[in-house]
Amino acid sequence: MWQEYLFPENINDAVSILSGSDGLARIIAGGTDLMLDIEGGRHVVEKLVDLSRIRELDQITEENGIIRIGANVTCTQVVNSELIQKKAPALSQGARRLGSKQIRNIATIAGNVIRAQPAADTAVPLVALGAKLEVVSADGTRTMEILDTYTESFAKSKIDSTSEVVTFLHVPAQGTLEGSAYVRLDKRRALSLPILNVACKISLAGDTIKSASIAIGPVGPGPRRAFDAENKLVGSDISPESIQSAAQLVINQCDPRNSLVRGSRKYRMAVINKLAERAIMQAVACAKA
Amino acid sequence: MMKKITVNFTLNGKAIEVFCEPDKMLVDVLREELALTGTKIGCREGECGACTVILNGDAVNSCLIPAAKVVGKEIQTIEGVADNGRLHPIQTAFIEKGAVQCGFCTPGVIMSAKALLDKNKSPNSDEIREAIGGNVCRCTGYVKIENAIKHAARILSEISVTGGGK
């Protein structure tokens, strides 16, 4: 277990500690997953580098149509944010369903993305919303598309928390005639893993769907986009039939495993279309509201 | 031998200093270093809520929080809920409504309920269920717990009307 617990005051100091520690220092934000991962032997850590004193990472702000969410922002902060409720509702709905109240009070959405679980309640909506991550390392700052941070290995991010820090998430703010929604299938309402989840963002031009983005999980190593269904939706009229026929195509990008926790592959392949249909319907309703 | 660290924080209203290993979890510091065993250990993985304490006003799982992380923070445990031996209205309500059976989950549930009622004076059923959704109880079936929290809200509102209590 770790021998040192450090609180850098700024991002540069955090990166310097990582750079000087030969991969044995690791970033901690909320730590709700990290503690279990360390306990379970997934990481060897000598130093934990806690971001909580870097106050600029505590905020949710909006600049030029982009919502910036700092790495310290918890799920509870996201749930309570009127800005997110109004301009990124799918994220608000996802954050509300993550873990329990106790977990949401500590867990960050940046951590939820980096942990790279395929059905993460905030990552799936962030994929649909087209979020980007601002990543700082000794080489400087870069911006990554959220989907590009996932690998072909289960629950493995390209972001290396022993050498780099995610500082902000950038989420495009929803404008007029745009809407988003998140739906989840689960065994019970409190503290349960999703059997399946779908997030959808839609923009409308009159009664036609102008653009669509659909994210699905857990149907592969990380969250996935349902490109075939999206393409089918674009340009189609808003009708139950057109939404239903587009939603049929989400299985093209689904490859779920048989899981004792989440359900069988067969069951999940059978119901994902219906869940996608609901997500699209709700996103359309949100865009029209 | 791991080098120990000093952690300063506020516990149940008093400033304290703990000298412990840097990788100790908050729940272990509370129970082992400070002998506050009202906070229970159930699963040690944030699933059961038996270890719930209040951190700067919010309910959290003390089994998932390194003690080193709470430097400068305010922690409240079940031991800090009663006022000099006088039970808090939430505790009274749990007794009156029969919301305690084996009692193992009770400290955690009460801390979740307190975090809720400190912010929301008259929560509805959905809000109560959301607040205690991270607390597992294998005895009661939750109905009496929910009723007790509603009852506690009523007692607290009467106290605030009459001006008594803390």
List the helices and strands and how they pair.
The complex is a heterodimer of chains A (289) and B (166).
Chain A lengths: L3 E3 L4 H9 L5 E4 L5 H6 L7 E4 L9 E4 L2 E5 L4 H6 L1 H6 L1 H9 L3 H4 L4 H6 L8 H6 L3 E6 L2 E6 L18 E9 L5 E8 L10 E10 L2 E10 L6 E2 L1 H7 L6 H8 L17 H24 L1
Parallel strand pairs in A: 1-3, 2-3
Antiparallel strand pairs in A: 4-5, 5-8, 6-7, 6-8, 9-10, 10-11, 11-12
Helix pairs in contact in A: 9-10, 10-11
Chain B lengths: L4 E7 L2 E7 L5 H8 L18 E4 L2 E4 L12 E3 L12 H8 L9 H14 L5 H7 L11 H20 L4
Parallel strand pairs in B: 1-5
Antiparallel strand pairs in B: 1-2, 3-4, 3-5
Helix pairs in contact in B: 2-5
Short précis:
The complex is a heterodimer of chains A (289) and B (166). Chain A has helices at 11-19, 34-39, 75-80, 82-87, 89-97, 101-104, 109-114, 123-128, 227-233, 240-247, 265-288, and strands at residues 4-6, 25-28, 47-50, 60-63, 66-70, 132-137, 140-145, 164-172, 178-185, 196-205, 208-217, 224-225. With 289 residues, chain A is α+β, with helices and mostly antiparallel strands.
